[in-house]
Amino acid sequence: MKTLPAVDVVIVGGGWTGLLMAKELGTRTKVSVVVLERGGPRDNAYYATTMDELDYLVRNRMMQDCSQETVTFRHSVKDHALPLRQLGSFLPGTGVGGAGEHWGAGSPRHSPDCFDLYSKTVERYGAKKLPEDHCIQDWGITYDELEPYYTRAEKMIGVAGKAGNIKGKRVEGGNIFEGWRSEEYPLPPTKTPYYASVFKEAANSLGYHPFPYPSATLTEVYKNPDGVTRSACTYCGYCHAGCMIGAKAQPTNVLLPIIEKHKAVSIRTGARVQKIVHESNKRVRGVNYVDASGQEFFQPAELVFLGSWTFSNTRLLFLSSIGQPYDPATGKGTLGRNLTHELTLPAARVFLDKPLNRFMGTGSAAMSLDDFGADHIDHTNLPFLRGGLLRANCQGYQPILNFGFVPPSVKSRWGAEWKKAAVHYYDQNGPIVFIGEHLAYKGNYMDLDPIYKDDHGNPLLRLTLDWRENERKMAEYMIPKAVELGRAMGAKEITPFPGLKQYDATRYQGTQVHGGTILGASPDTSVVNTYLQHWQVSNLFVLGGSVFPQKPVAGPTLTILAQTLRTADAVVDHYLKKPGSLV
User: Fold this and answer.
1) Total domains, the chain
2) What CATH number does the domain containing 581 carry?
3) Which is nearest to 158 in space by CA: 178, 181, 182, 185?
């Protein structure tokens, strides 16, 4: 193993969090920074010349290679875990920009009560209302503390939307259930595609409060506070394959232009970090990584940030023996606990008698309603807690991925009848999607698999995960609401979701997986403090969705960016001047 010259900072992962921290340190300090990214480099011009539905959206060119590294999965400790041989319920990205290159750009804020979920739930309903095997906990930070960073993040990536609550005053047309905002969105909302407009009219007729979903896809030419200018969206509908014109915010078009101006920051691609080197769980000394040729290196550093995906952050701490692994039998330990995933399902697929032009849109062009989200309805007499959004997505309706949906009246699933119906209904159907909260449970967690290993001989991460009655009852409650909306939209036929059973690792539900290195107010119940600093190892920070104690409804990216900005402020203003614990 070759030892490289020491640097001040090593950042593991070149996605949103890793590159944002690199940008903040590079522009505000004189420290030397190295970003280690397992995938390859990216050039934004590449998207304009290679965009292809089959290659990118079916064969998953931008995603991690499961033949090199995957996870194993089981529903409970009684089951034998097996490797996931192909991507299904989540799509981890790789390469510079990470999943931030293929995300849909939905950019809502979390509901204020998500940050003190345990306290607010017990205060309103009593502890007996909580699920029996829950491990819900407060974040240790409040919405009010994070609000200024939300505003900074929105301006940085250029979020388009309509405010529904400015300084406590509700504003019609926006999400009136959202937390207070200090100011309006930087840009007006995306155009409303036809399918979304039909949903909006139906929602209004039923007395709900539809609003345009916040999106980091520009609706007009925009220059952010860092001086980065991007063009407006053309609604081509290929956001999930990377934006060919830079309208959708991606790490490569928002952060890289700034990073590339600073010689103190360098990005090494093809660098798979194997281990964090430390002194008896007291101080990190650097990281070991393997390059694309298989050569091993030790990169010494004074400060290490983990800025990769949930599974990668968690697994690296396990492989490095940092922290106490969680034991579901005793409840002791923190590393690996509170595994949660996005509860997303097509609550009702509606079939109409008119074209919907769904081939045009953006990754987050949608009309949503939040009337049933968070704790906006009284759950006293309901068999579940929390809730979620109902949404009409208009993210581009590619012909390979989206062909073949037919209404219940078409009995054939193959042959001439099915083909004729599939062609007829191709642009005359759409899902009403439900996105719900996923609470944390004692039996949903991560650890290292005792059998299966990656291509370098390191144990794979093992997921133990299943839905509980709270999620099943939530879905059971929301599906009829979606059907009701479908009828109000004038649907001739509707296919309701059949119900939530066991967690399905083959059905895509979103790449928003959380937990494993959760934050909190105490080292007894969390891995990192509220500044995302490891409780035991003060020169180690963990960024990203792995710090979320449970999965709120809203997409995580804006909150992840806001938290990273808050951590960057603490590091620049305090830690670098006086290294040590920030709390």
Assistant:
1) 2
2) 3.50.50.60
3) 185
At residue 238, what is the residue type? Y
Do residues 354 and 484 both lie within one domain? Answer: yes
Tell me the C-alpha to C-alpha distance, in Å, between residue 124 and each of 114, 340, 470, 477.
14, 24, 17, 21
Q: Which distant-in-sequence residues (6+ apart) come within 8 Å of 226 by Cβ?
A: 23, 27, 156, 258
Q: Convert the pLDDT of each residue in 496-526 to its tens digit.
A: 999 999 999 999 999 999 999 999 999 999 9
- Which residue is it, tokens 């491990």? 135
| Same domain? 164 vs 230 | yes
Residue appearing with tokens 């081939």: 359
How much helix, strand and coil, in percent to the nearest 5, is found in the chain?
25, 25, 50
- Residue range(s) defining the domain that contains residue 361: 159-248+343-437+467-502
3-state SS, 256-286, equals: HHHHCCCCCEEEEECCEEEEEEEECCCEEEE
Neighbours of 499 (CB within 10 A): 10
**Distances 337 to 101, 319, 443, 537 between C-alpha atoms, Å:** 28, 16, 9, 19
pTM: 0.97
Q: Are residues 524 and 472 in the same domain?
A: no
* Cα 448 to Cα 457: distance, rounded to the nearest angstrom: 13
